[in-house]
Amino acid sequence: FFCAVKQKRVIVVGSGIAGLASAIRLACKGYAVQVFEKNNYPGGKLTAFVQDGYRFDAGPSLFTLPKQVDELFELAGENPRTYFNYQRLPVACHYFWDDGTFLPAPGNESDFAAEVEKVLHVPAERVLTYLNKSKFIYDTTAPVFLQRSLHIARNFLNLDTLKGIIRMPRLGIFSNLHHDNVKQLGDPKLVQLFDRYATYNGSDPYQAPGVLQSIPHLEFGQGAWFPDGGMHSITTSLVALAKRKGVQFVFEKVVDEIIVSRNQIRGVRCGNDTFDADLVVCNSDVVPAYRKLLASQQAPEKTLSQPRSSSALIFYWGIKQVFPQLNMHNIFFSNNYEEEFQLIFEGKQISSDPTIYINLTSNYLPSDAPDGCQNWFVMINVPGNTGQNWNQLIAQARKDILTKLSRRLGTDIESLIQCESILDPRSIEQKTSSFQGSLYGSSSNNRNAAFLRHANRSSKIRNLYFCGGSVHPGGGIPLCLQSARIVSDLISPA
Length: 494
Description:
The protein contains 17 helices and 19 strands. It is an alpha/beta fold. A seven-stranded mixed β-sheet has the order 7-6-15-16-17-14-18. The chain has a five-stranded parallel β-sheet with strand order 9-2-1-13-19, with helices on one face. It has a three-stranded antiparallel β-sheet with strand order 10-11-12, with no helix packed on it. Helix 1 (17-28) runs parallel beside helix 17 (477-490), helix 5 packs across helix 9 and helix 7 runs antiparallel to helix 8 (188-195). The mean pLDDT is 93.
């Protein structure tokens, strides 16, 4: 007689990109996986909507390291090209300054350097030297700080760590990003361009460490990409893959408690219903996770008290005109970048001259807008929600954005808006449970930030794991996917 072995069960709380990737990885390891999601849709911030004939990707708009998504299909024994495809963008971004300077940034390093020399008169060799350093920092730090847990001692006993220690003086760990950029680049506009990469994890370039110089390598060295069907196709493709691997999704199911008994995971509670689990992977922001889901457990107060990253104010505008000078990614810079960040992180307010990011996908996916129109995703960096008068702030920011864009593009933009939706820190917090509406959990405004992020495994509760933007290694699609891989590596096959 043979006794059937009961399949071990995993509950994933939240269906953000990290939750989806964790579910797929653990299903491939032989676990029975359920994903509980409070909303009626998956994806967290990585979702989309349609309004009056315009399709908008609602959240993350930059796609780098696409092989991380491919890897999930390959892990499941599938060919990713059958289900998910993408193209490299020939142009990384278009940059605009109020004095009329326009810099198109090709996605190729050498072409970008040549364009900088042509427009800003900075030698191409200086730009390439900077990008080579960006690659050096990324190649040195990624294996140590991004691809492994920082909370397991044995992970530091390897050649990668030794290389990192030897190269530490050259990594910018003890310096400041803005200071390093001034020293290496000189030209104020080029410094501003590379300072903005601190915003890729919601940080302030005037406070963040120089090690963030590694980020431009992702865009220029590894490439910026666009998925067929838009960013939301990342979510839909991974949900379909998860379902093919047997993952069960339970939508509109609010998890009220992660059940712990004798420092051991027992499952979750949703209202009066309890669901047993051998392991729980929490894809929620760690602050509400501890304050609500783990309210009976001791919270890591030092970790939870870390300064939060910036949030965003986004206007989704259907524009009844085509602007050929705009590419998929566009930046209209502030005239006083330092003041803008001081207001965000110290004043908790919004600059009257904000740096404006416009993403429009209809250039590459014409069906995203009616003929002769464009779908504008217009975003500015703003502080998290700490009780400000957001209705007043939003109304003023809208006026300031329209004034700036109308002046720079030579057209009354407001008269071209056919439809509008708004996402602000309050609604980000409400929809995604991101504390204060921060986009990336805690900020990276000090050199110890990487070590102060929450670990991917609880040190006190057995079989409790954490993934997503508020834990190691950080926010953004690539790092969230990396957190799922780390979680999976920490868990033995079923």
